[in-house]
Amino acid sequence: MFKKVLIANRGEIACRIIRACHELGVQAVAVYSEPDKDSLHVKMADHAVCIGAGPNADSYLNMPNVLMAAIVSGAEAVHPGYGYFSEQAQFADALQTLGIKFIGPPVEAITQMGDKSAARDAAKRAGCPVVPGTDGPIESLEDAAELAETIGFPLLVKASAGGGGRGIRRVESPDELENQLTAAQIEADAAFGNGQVYLEKMIVGPRHVEVQIIADAYGNCVHLGERECSVQNLRHQKMIEEAPFAMLTEEVRDQMGSAAVALAKSVGYQNAGTIEFLMDKSGDFYFIEMNTRLQVEHPVTEEVTGVDIVKTQLKIAAGEELPFAQHDITWQGHSIEARITAQDPERKFAPSCGTITQWTPPDGDDVRLETHVYEGFSITPFYDPMIAKLIVTADDRSEAIRRMSSALREFKVGGIKTNIPFLIRLLDDAKYRAGDVDTTYVATLMEEGETANV
Ligand code: ADP
Fold it and tell me: CATH number for the 207-452 domain, one of 3.30.470.20, 3.40.50.970, 3.40.50.1220, 3.30.70.260?
């Protein structure tokens, strides 16, 4: 095992990784920006290196600064967390050159799966069903018009390099194609430095179901089952995630798991990764993309399988074999994660900054909180609004919902606005309780809320 690992991230995930390091007897090095100096991850780490000013470009996304921190701290490995450099092949490659281990997949796998269009091709080759769409990026408007007719409307224009719900545009009819295509290309170029886009059939009212996989350097690859993540905000960002997907049959779980493992193996994948699928109304599922990193929602999988994904990542990166085989993995109970954000649901989810004057999180059996904040901590405008993840686990989905609902009611935060009131309303909603949700569910719930003047 490594002696010292640097965590190239901030927030709750940096704290989560530091804990895993400590449990394995590994020293943890934190990096932080000036406004993050009082963050819990800095206090928890054995060493901490300031890497610049508040804006991400000056610190967490300043590659030379992060690499320099790794060198001067003497870290043998770097865990990238999620976001930031976690899916940037260039970062993994630079570390390799420096003789520092990247805790994640090989550079080639990041490159291949990081390009959504190339990932679709890899999925097809591995026998994994993909959403009907174009093979490779769009070359011209004429091609696009022809392909669009074959795919049918509505369809989506997607950026090959897209991520985080960005770079996706909906096209309802042929006359919208040119405008949306051009807008998507410009947007993708500005956001990702890569203007390539492709077309994909839009699945109407799909569920988002994803499979967690984990693979070692010796050809062993295991799936840890699925997560249901259909509760997404208007920008396709997940709000609530569950494991397992209560309505999935054993047979479909096996099919999805096998498809995910086949794809991961076909690209020589190592470490933790997530294969995302959309499921249509008839229960057919289609690959949409692979995230070549740890996911925000990994705890729900940990809760129902008993596998510590972060510790397993560290072990694999250190050259150990996967400590379990597929037949060792079993699923018990039901786990739900709610993302707590510093946003005001009464003001269209506008970010809410300021000092936290009260922080009284819920407690009780099978209630887990992942956070980097505390009473007295100041939320600055520089970063993602997520301030905590609340995870509850119970025997079945109904009990888990009731546990989450009661935990959210116990959760008292003062000084800033949070999305907790909205989450409570969502958890109480009959449709959510019945499991009758798809990726358009939150939009509908918000409209209802506005009508009711909530
Ligand atoms: P990102 O990498 O930005 O997260 P994804 O390709 O994973 O983008 O898509 C994000 C979300 O957008 C999905 O969870 C789903 O809600 C929606 N989406 C993506 N592709 C389709 C599609 N073909 N049909 C319908 N909805 C889609």
Answer: 3.30.470.20
